[in-house]
Design brief:
The chain is an alpha+beta fold and about 200 residues long. The chain contains three helices and nine strands, in the order H-E-E-E-E-E-H-E-E-E-E-H.
């Protein structure tokens, strides 16, 4: 009887083992699809930062530093503490009224150099408070995908560029950082629309 039970258990184990080996399937490994890190996106919560008397709305979840630079400039760094460590470097330049031409020409040249001939989306609008605003978004730029320029008639010019620190393995893949670019684009649009 024991031999019969042992034979049954052995046969059952062999059947289970045979079923688990999937003889109809190839043993060749199948690569998994590309996966992207799950990113924490900054919420749409804003605070007003004073830069030389100009109130600027920035993301409340970002670290913001305001530093005067010379007599006519203020540097504003908006540091997002998320994947790819995006930083929006902003400069508020105060020019004599009607003398913003050289500053805006210089910024247009820098924007063009940063784009390096890449395809980009250009958004232009004006605000009820008199600002003329531009934003260039180059989704395939691994370093400076979002750039802004805003100017008004009283001599203030706000310019800036977002800098990404993307890992080398993802630097050539715009899909990897698309959510961050979308969040910063949202923040910069809101900021420019609400300039005083």
């Amino acid at each position: 009887m024991k031999a019969y039970m042992l034979a049954c258990v052995t046969a059952a184990l062999c059947a289970i083992l045979a079923a688990c080996t999937h003889p109809g399937h190839s043993a060749a490994p199948v690569p998994r699809p590309t996966a992207y890190p799950r990113m924490e996106i900054p919420d749409s919560e804003y605070v007003c930062v004073d830069a030389a008397g100009t109130g600027i709305l920035v993301n409340g979840n970002a670290r913001t530093g305001v530093k005067p630079h010379g007599d006519s400039c203020v540097w504003i760094d908006v540091v997002y503490g998320v994947f790819a460590s995006p930083v929006m470097h902003l400069t508020l330049t105060i020019c004599p009224p009607g003398k913003t031409g050289s500053v805006t020409d210089n910024r247009h040249e820098r924007m063009s150099l940063n784009l390096g001939g890449r395809r980009h989306e250009l958004t232009e609008f004006s605000t009820p408070s008199g600002w003329i605003c531009e934003m260039a978004v180059a989704r395939n730029s691994p370093t400076t995908p979002v750039q802004i320029l805003a100017r008004n008639n009283d001599g203030r010019v706000l310019s800036g560029a977002m800098v990404l620190h993307t890992p080398d393995s993802l630097a050539g893949d715009p899909e990897a950082v698309a959510p961050i670019i979308d969040a910063v684009t949202r923040d910069m649009t809101l900021m420019m629309k609400n300039l005083p």
